[in-house]
Amino acid sequence: MLTKLKRLNLIFHHEYNWPTQINQNTIKLINEIFNKESSKWQLNKITNTITAREQNYKLSPTKLLNLILEHLPTIWQEIYRLKPTSSIECDSLLLPILQDELATTIKGLPNNKAAGSNGLTYEIWKKFPKKYYDMIISLFNDILKLETIPSRWQEALLYPILKPEYWNCNLSMTRPIILLDTLRKIFTKILTQCYQRYLTNTSIFQKTNQAGLHGFSTMEIIFKIQTIIDYHKDALHSNSPFYIMIQDLSKAYDRVNLSLLDLALKRIGLPTKLVTVIINLFKNHKNKIILPMLLSESYDLKIRIIQGEVCSSLLWIIYYDPMFEVIEKSNTQGITLTASILKSIYHLHDNFVQQENFKLLGYLDDTTWTKNYLSDLTESLKIADEFYTLANIKINKNKCKLITNDPQLIHTTSTQLPSETK
């Protein structure tokens, strides 16, 4: 018997054989799964089992998606709706991969990187005869057409790297890296470059969640945080309190819910075919651990997206962006910085005035909350908590830091903030 949580994942992935018509039994089933009468939607409370007779219901993907969205908390319903995008940009994502793209990608591959289970390194692909590139191109385009990942690409090696502390035979004290098939990584690199261009051209992400896109780095965030601190050091603003909370997410990639990632990818307008290929890259994985003298038996990989995969950092931003949009649309205030400069030395009271408001800043799995009032920080964290529950995200509380000029908090070693996701 499957739990409702498992059933929910199957529904998100369209792995049930649903009929094309929505009927009362179907709606009743979805209502049961989402516990519609509950005021707060929590995945960990979906515990009832299912019966075999319920497998007879069916929905088209579009109708199913709309019905599922209706059962999300109200604040998230519109956020996960399809965003308006350029049809030209969307169509460009479905163009076949060309030999020039493959040649450019292979030429730019780094050297001295570990190979996957088949032993083929990047150096080997750099020496691969170009007259046979059409074979690789044919494979890549067939994957996109058939939406199927080669089974050999779903096999990987895991090597546990020791941390500075003595590991004492505790695997949690190691940093495991996964060695993937290098041809798979070439494919995902081309794919990532394709939808990275799409995301950059459409400007669909929130302005404070741009990591991984062309022209953005950690420097923008560091500069903004330093500017906030310097701004409040100024005599004119020294009495104005500020609160900067630096929040670290625990094993962020490992906890990604592929069902919600599927929704997040469709939210930004990626074609269904491309979404299916991306999701399938992370399904049915098997690993073998590299031991001192041999390889272990293979085991099923339970994590969601693989940190060593080329596209994973960009997928995380897509997964995380809905929370940024909700926060930006919320009534909570951030920190507003104001700067002015004279338009003319002859008119001392005529200035150019520039204002910018920051509520939160994100770089991959590091989130920085910026507020002028502790009450606004409280409300924003409540919204974030709801998203963390929805998205299966866990906060690393030991690494959370609060920077402030509040005299009541400066000399305290800790302060009580709203409860965070356990």
Number of helices: 14
Number of domains: 1
- What overall geometry do the principal axes of the alpha carbons give? globular
Rounded to the nearest angstrom, the distance between the terminal CA atoms is 27 Å
Describe this structure in words.
- This protein is of the alpha+beta class.
- It has one domain.
- Helix content is 38%, strand content 15%.
- It has 14 helices and ten strands.
- The strands form three sheets. It has a four-stranded mixed β-sheet, with no helix packed on it. Strands 8-9-3-10 form a four-stranded antiparallel β-sheet, sandwiched between helices. The chain has a two-stranded antiparallel sheet with strand order 6-7.
- Strand 6 and strand 7 form a beta hairpin.
- Helix 11 packs antiparallel against helix 12, helix 11 packs across helix 13 and helix 13 crosses helix 14.
- The longest helix is centred in the middle third of the chain and has 21 residues.
- 24% of the residues are buried.
- The N terminus and C terminus are likely disordered.
- InterPro entries: RT_dom (IPR000477).
- It comes from Rhizophagus clarus.
